[in-house]
């Protein structure tokens, strides 16, 4: 983490931040990548700032990683310009996990080119070139880059003709760049180029197609190796790939972007998840409701969606001269159910639950398998209650969320509590009293579960505070999980009321709550989390029987019938193939149990059990096998 130092006046004699740091903390000077003072990032080669405090960043800081990776992108661009003369540079930022640079070149980069460029980058690192910053006017910079064939840089500069800009150079290379950068190329440690892609200049398909090279950089080779290992694992587990290999779902181009077809095996799993879900909701006093896919535009005007969520909505479609819209959210429907009668405090709380399919516009460029789609099903609930009840309701909703996540083997959570900022209170809906009650209930629920959390003032949306839970998957990636969100907007827009014990009308509190969020995304994430090896209760095929020869076929069918009787999802692999080939195929399909039957098993009334991860478990009487897996066949229960 960034280390902060007080700057004493007598230290200001040092030539640069780096020189000062070398005197103050030589070890840190070795690892330092940049500095920060008064919120501004600085090169280590810059003079000491006129600030009382300075922070020193290393690769452990997010801003530090960006400096390292951005410097690596410059080294890559330098290598490319040396190896492919005449190449023009577009832009080359650091991104999450790495960096890229877009090139305009007549060459077509393939794997051999990446290896060559990487080798040249290693030479640039070994040469330990000093990286220097110069400031100049945009006009000077235009002249500078025009001389060097930097037509894209000139285009950028022409948009900011009056600006003072900075140019970073190292050896024969120079780039228009805000910085900061490492002091020299020798400070780059572990580099790897990863892939290439086409990219349009400024993301606009009317512009030239450029070639993008992606790469990454780490502080040590060990970190890089670990990253590459996880990346390979992530590729092996990619849900789009497993979705096809295991025949779970598809998103055919012909259907339209971001729209999902659930195939029989995926459909069965979805059914099992939904069934588990519904049972758990019933146990907790939720009521099931259903609502249509379209509604009058007028409803979306009342709810406010047509003003603040218009770009995300599809439509209009006309029915009897009236405008309708596809639903992006289920909330207004649940509100109408609530409002179908005047409610008394005695009826509260109500908890409406729906697996509601919604449609939201996403740009085609961001669509990604099941993770970003245009039509998806939310496990949506709206809890409507009195202020006295809200504490318990939020506590129970959070407890429920954690139970469900643990049921799918998620153990690590990151909890964000988004609340309003102290300034700008005017922009939020709801009274101070409502915000206080809401925030307190969220906080007490989090603390009651003993969870660490991050409080984010100013992150709340205008209509209420919320909890967001992120899940850590088996490859260490964080993914969006349950959310519990107050809404002071809809309660007022729809004039929601209840009659209190005092006989007066009051406004209830309303909480939106989604646990899986999107069934599609949750399923995609789960496929990757378990690498397609689903827990037994969810596996579409739980056991497959492999008869060794034709004469074992009848016995295999008898075993299958017994297993079906015990509600095991089973199939018989009676193809003409060797047992070895059948085992390999069953393993590729991640089937939890393969049961091999031959002469010995037939005579003894047994099956030879082979478990997906534990391997060969030896012969077992059929009844014993069934008893042994009985618990695992059921979803987790609370
Ligand atoms: Zn740059
Ligand atoms: Zn809602």
Can you offer a commentary on this structure?
This protein is of the alpha+beta class and 638 residues long. Helices cover 35% and strands 27% of the residues. It is built from 20 helices and 33 strands. α3 packs across α4 (111-126), α8 (239-245) packs across α16 (519-529) and α13 runs parallel beside α14. The longest helix is centred in the N-terminal third of the chain and has 22 residues, at 62-83. The radius of gyration is 30 Å and the shape is globular. It starts with a strand and ends in a 9-residue tail after the last helix. The relative contact order is 0.07. One zinc ion (ZN) binds at residues 329, 331, 380, 382, 512. Residues 70, 74, 175, 177 line the site of one zinc ion (ZN).
Summary, kept brief:
It contains 20 helices and 33 strands. The chain has 638 residues and is an alpha+beta fold. Helix 17 (553-565) links the parallel strand 29 (543-547) and strand 30.
């Amino acid at each position: 983490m960034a280390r902060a130092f007080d700057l004493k006046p007598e230290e200001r004699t040092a030539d640069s931040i780096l020189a000062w740091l070398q005197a103050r903390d030589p070890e840190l000077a070795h690892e330092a990548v940049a500095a920060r003072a008064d919120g501004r990032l600085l090169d280590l080669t810059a003079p000491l700032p006129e600030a009382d405090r300075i922070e020193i960043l290393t690769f452990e800081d997010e801003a530090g990683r960006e400096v390292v990776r951005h410097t690596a992108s410059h080294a890559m661009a330098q290598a490319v310009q040396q190896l492919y003369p005449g190449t023009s540079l577009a832009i080359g930022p650091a991104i999450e996990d790495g960096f890229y640079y877009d090139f305009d070149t007549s060459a077509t980069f393939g794997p051999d080119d990446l290896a060559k460029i990487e080798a040249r980058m290693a030479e640039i690192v070994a040469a330990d070139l000093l990286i220097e910053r110069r400031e100049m006017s945009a006009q000077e910079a235009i002249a500078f880059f025009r001389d060097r064939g930097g037509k894209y840089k000139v285009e950028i500069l022409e948009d900011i003709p009056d600006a003072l800009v900075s140019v970073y150079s190292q050896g024969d290379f120079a780039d228009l760049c805000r910085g900061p950068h490492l002091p020299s190329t020798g400070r780059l440690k572990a580099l790897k180029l990863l892939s290439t892609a086409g990219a349009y200049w400024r993301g606009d398909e009317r512009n030239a197609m450029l070639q993008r090279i992606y790469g990454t950089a780490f502080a040590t080779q060990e970190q890089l190796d670990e990253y590459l290992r996880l990346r390979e694992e992530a590729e092996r587990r990619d849900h789009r790939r497993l979705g096809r290999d295991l025949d779970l779902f598809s998103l055919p181009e012909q259907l339209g972007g971001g729209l999902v077809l659930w195939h029989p095996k995926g459909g069965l799993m979805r059914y099992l998840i939904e069934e588990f879900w519904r049972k758990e909701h019933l146990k907790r006093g939720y009521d099931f409701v259903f609502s249509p896919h379209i509604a009058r535009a007028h409803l979306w005007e009342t709810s406010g969606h047509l003003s603040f969520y218009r770009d995300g909505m599809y439509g209009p479609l006309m029915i009897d001269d009236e405008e309708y819209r596809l639903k992006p959210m289920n909330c207004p429907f649940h509100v109408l159910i609530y409002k179908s009668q005047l409610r008394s405090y005695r009826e509260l709380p109500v908890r409406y639950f729906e697996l509601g399919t919604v449609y939201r516009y996403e740009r085609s460029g961001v669509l990604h398998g099941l993770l970003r789609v245009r039509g998806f099903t939310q496990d949506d609930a709206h809890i409507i209650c009195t202020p006295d009840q809200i504490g318990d309701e939020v506590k129970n909703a959070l407890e429920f969320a954690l139970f469900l996540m643990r049921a799918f083997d998620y153990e690590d959570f990151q909890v964000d509590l988004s609340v309003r900022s102290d300034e700008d209170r005017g922009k939020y809906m709801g009274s101070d009293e409502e915000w206080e009650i809401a925030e307190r209930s969220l906080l007490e629920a989090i603390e009651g579960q003993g969870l660490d959390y991050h409080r984010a003032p100013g992150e709340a949306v205008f209509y209420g505070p919320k909890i967001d839970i992120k899940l850590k998957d088996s490859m260490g990636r964080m993914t969006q999980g349950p959310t519990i969100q107050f809404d002071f907007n809809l309660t007022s827009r729809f004039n929601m009321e209840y009659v209190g014990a005092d006989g007066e009308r009051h406004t209830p509190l309303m909480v939106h709550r989604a646990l899986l969020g999107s069934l599609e995304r949750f399923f995609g994430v789960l496929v990757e989390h378990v690498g397609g090896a689903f827990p037994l209760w969810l596996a579409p095929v739980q056991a497959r029987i492999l008869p060794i020869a034709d004469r074992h076929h009848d016995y295999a069918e008898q075993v299958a019938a017994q297993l079906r009787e015990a509600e095991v999802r089973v199939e018989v692999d009676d193809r003409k193939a060797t047992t070895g080939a059948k085992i390999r195929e069953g393993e590729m399909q991640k089937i939890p149990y393969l049961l091999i039957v031959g002469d010995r098993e037939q005579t003894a009334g047994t099956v030879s059990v082979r478990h997906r991860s534990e391997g060969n478990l030896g012969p077992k009487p059929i009844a014993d096998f069934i008893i042994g897996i009985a618990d695992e066949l059921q979803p987790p229960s609370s």
